Amino acid sequence: MKSTLGFMTLHQEAEKSYSTEIAKRADSFGLTVFRFCPADIQPGTALLKGFIYENEEWKPSLQPLPAFIYDRCFYSKGDRSAKSRPIAEWLKNRPDTVFLGKGLPDKWAVYQAIMKDSTLSFYLPDTAQIEAAKDVLPLLFRERQCMLKPVKGAQGRGIIALSLSGKTIEAVYHNGANKKTKGFSSIEEFEAWMNLFLKQSPSPYLIQPLLQLTDRSRYPFDIRILMQKDGDGNWAERGRGIRRGYQGSFISNLGSGGEALSYEDWFQRLSRRQAYLFHDDLSTILSRLPVALEQSFSSLFELGIDIGYSRDGSIWILEVNSKPGRQLIMQTQPDQKNHLYEAPLAYCKHLIANTAREDSTSGKEQEQ
After folding, report:
1. Whole-prediction pTM value?
2. Paired sense of beta strands 145-150 and 315-321, if any
3. pLDDT tens column, 89-113
4. Pairing between strand 3-8 and 68-71?
5. Would you put residue 198 in left (φ > 0), alpha (ψ -120 to 50) or beta?
6. Which of 116, 267, 331, 359 is 20 to 30 A from 240 in CA distance terms?
7. For the chain, what is the domain count?
8. Is residue 198 domain-shared with residue 287, that is, in the same domain?
9. End of a domain among 172, 194, 209?
């Protein structure tokens, strides 16, 4: 009898093409894929209304809770997220349900976890929580530039770059691909705006120095590395690529107007010394970071690791995402597509085998 892998999204049509490609390959792994939303659980029955993949098409189906779940829910404002999030957390806490990965908490918790590793902490920008404008001004006065990030946020949304020139402060932020600028002619005007902004924001904020993460043409860029667990439960790199924003911007997310570029093309332009040092630092980060995160949080399946490379040659861990996208790797390394589609299935099969071994061991102990 086939086991079922539940593909959980916030909306029924979300990532449908991705789930379809996984479902096409499921049969060879002895699995069936069931697509569902946490909000569609039937009250009092523990049955889920969703779609099962059969005979090369999705068919409406009412199914029991899958024993294994791949969580691809991306929460935001709105009633749908508010209703779905507690149901998803309830599912994660059920002893009879295994998630491929339970995900990471907010940016501040992740930062604190990475800081516990004395080697990895070297690659983290100085970061602090802020509650009011008075927490922003000391760094801004000292460095003349800083960056504010929402503790809860993704795809560059909510990030603000601040710069100080004389007594004039400029705030730059993105609305999708469009860059917006707001100027303040006095410190008092800025403080009033900043305090109101933080008070009204749905997420607390962090402050960091504004790192000089631009290429030779002054385009902002970062390196995204996608890591996943393989069929043996070991971490494996699936691909890496460059995300480059446009001139005058300060973020490189694809959703904010960035473009996908080949990692190899970028790497080949480094000098021999730069390439050696970068490769050495990056190898250290990739070997230690997934392990450090799993020591602090629940089990993980995949990570999108964003790396910054400064003009002075320093390397930075910018962000770690436990629900990464695949667009960058698909565009720059299309030969990896099949691996990306099969990865959740291979890891799910590994978890099934582990569960069977644990049940067998438990049965033997009870007999004794």
Report:
1. 0.92
2. unpaired
3. 999 999 889 999 999 999 999 999 9
4. parallel
5. alpha
6. 116
7. 3
8. no
9. 209
